[in-house]
Amino acid sequence: MDMHIIAIPERQYSSVWKMPDNRLGPAEWVNAGLKALAKSGLSALKADTLAKKLGVSRGSFYWHFADVSAFRAAILQRWREIMLENIIEEIERVPDDRLEALIDRAFAANSDLESAVRAWATADPQARDAVEAVDVERIRYLRKLLIETGVDPSVAEARARIMNWCYLGYALSANELDDESLKLVIRDLTQLARLKVQEFPLAARASTAAARPSHRQAPP
Questions:
Q1: Other CB atoms within 10 A of residue 68 CB
Q2: C-beta separation of 37 from 116 below 8 A
Q3: Of the four, 48, 129, 195, 200, which is 20 to 30 A from 77 by CA?
């Protein structure tokens, strides 16, 4: 019987760590890391801690990631995909009111992971850069949807920032709303975001005051 030898290229750490029998992939490690981060915070993102939860050795971790920093970078990239890119793809497929669909999607989602990543960002430049980049893209997409609904481009970016702050305020709050209250918040926020500048009460009063003739007499 002929024997064929298949050459397997060496890779970093192959001389130190052998590929584990269960062959966990990087995706399983990252998903486990996301769950641990959402539940317990940054301190849970350790090779030993996660290896015990997954029932494998540390060798599996270092087969896929050069070090903990590389693993954290993969965690942040996956967070971006889940909390930004995948949501935009989902909303782009909505045939009707995409702005309301986005607000409803954001406010109804579990915010544990969002809170954990932002807490992480307060102490780590790598996470802070990732969070800032996501905020920029969220505001850009909100601005696009607002303009599509008829909001003046000159105020669309400010509205987008306000909407993003509203979401973050709710996501980072310890208080939760019941379904009916949340529906009212989503409805009102959507309506406020769409208001024309002339429809704001303060703007309307200022416009009226500016148009009213002055009855002041010139000083002698």
A1: 13
A2: yes
A3: 48
Which residue stretches of 19-67 are H helix?
A: 26-40, 47-54, 58-64
In order of their start, the domains of the chain are 13-66 (1.10.10.60), 78-198 (1.10.357)
| Start-to-end C-alpha separation, the chain | 119
* Contact between residue 159 and residue 151 where contact means Cβ atoms under 8 Å apart: yes
pTM over 0.85: no
- Reduced to 3 states (helix: H, G, I; strand: E, B; else coil), residue 34 is helix
Tokens of 46: 């350790």
Q: Note the pLDDT tens digit of each residue in 54-67.
A: 988 888 888 899 99
Helix residue ranges, H only, 81-124: 86-92, 98-108, 112-121
Nearest to 196 by CA among 153, 160, 139: 153
Question: Can you list the alpha helix ranges (DSSP code H) found in 109-124?
Answer: 112-121
